[in-house]
Known about the structure:
The protein is mainly alpha-helical.
Amino acid sequence: SAPGESTEHASDLIERSLRRAEYVQEADFTSLGGLAKEVKCIRKVLSIPWNNIARFRDLGLRTPRGVMLHGPPGTGKTRLAYAAARETGAKLYVLNGPDLVSQFQGESEAGLRAVFESAVKNEPAIIFID
C-alpha cells in the first residue's frame, strides 16, 4: 500500500465503528425480551466488575477482558452488546466483517490494530464485530 494509506484506512475504520455505535443510547437490558439468562451473565461478567473496578483492584481481582457472543442472526447479539455498553458506560466500537478486509497488503491488520489501540486508550471499551 502507498504511504499513509494504512493510517487513513485505520482512522476511517475507527470513525465508522464509533458512528455505528451512536445507537447505544437506545438499548438497555430491560428492552431485551427472552434474553434473561444472557443479561444475567453479562451483568455478572462485565457490568458488576467494570462498574466496581477500584473495588476489584483493592481485592487483588482482575476484571474480565472480554466476552464472545455467538449464534444465528436475529437472536439479539447486537442489542445485547449495545445494552452492555450502555450499562457499563463502555465506549462501543462496532465493526462489520467487510470493514476488516482491504485490497492493500497490511491495511486490514493496521485498521484492526488501530481499533484495538483506541479501545485500550478508552477503557472500558467493547469491540463488537458483526
